UniProtKB/TrEMBL annotation:
One Pfam family this sequence matches: OsmC
InterPro entries: KH_dom-like_a/b, OsmC/Ohr_fam, OsmC/Ohrsf
Protein name: OsmC/Ohr family protein
Record lineage: Bacteria, Bacillati, Bacillota, Bacilli, Lactobacillales
Top-level taxon in the UniProt lineage: Bacteria
């Protein structure tokens, strides 16, 4: 293992989450104007940071020093047929002066651990037995 952190949340969506590394994060509901990060913002930050770092690593390994960016959008939706909510995550990125043909595009998706995590579809608490995810 290269790194591990545990988030301990006793206050729900509005409050403070303690991390095992001593840091703490203030959280808030996405539909209010209070300070703090909401889950959608944290997911967008994690995905964009991971994909950007992976893209930069791939470009560096190929000896390319190009400007790049990653945009990640996280939308919160209500489940249409069952109680609960789900996230729709969309990403886009660009790196200048590299791609002559689409087949030459390095894929950050192949190296970043987040899509593999997302592949294991999370179930809402209302669907799980004994409150376990």
């Amino acid at each position: 293992m290269l790194y591990s952190v545990t988030a301990h949340n006793t206050q729900g969506i509005d409050g403070t989450v303690q991390l095992s590394n001593g840091k703490q994060v203030t959280t808030s509901h996405p539909l209010n104007n209070q300070s703090g990060f909401n889950p959608e913002e944290m997911i967008a930050l994690a995905w964009s940071t991971c994909f950007k770092a992976t893209l930069d690593t791939i470009l560096k390994e190929k000896g390319l020093n190009h400007l790049s960016y990653i945009d990640v959008t996280v939308d919160l939706h209500k489940e249409p047929e069952i109680p609960g909510y789900y996230f729709a995550v969309k990403g886009a990125g660009c790196y200048r002066q590299y791609v002559a043909r689409r087949s030459q595009c390095p894929s950050p998706r192949s190296s970043c651990p987040l899509p593999r995590f997302q592949a294991h579809r999370c179930r809402s608490l209302s669907q799980s037995k004994n409150g376990a995810l």
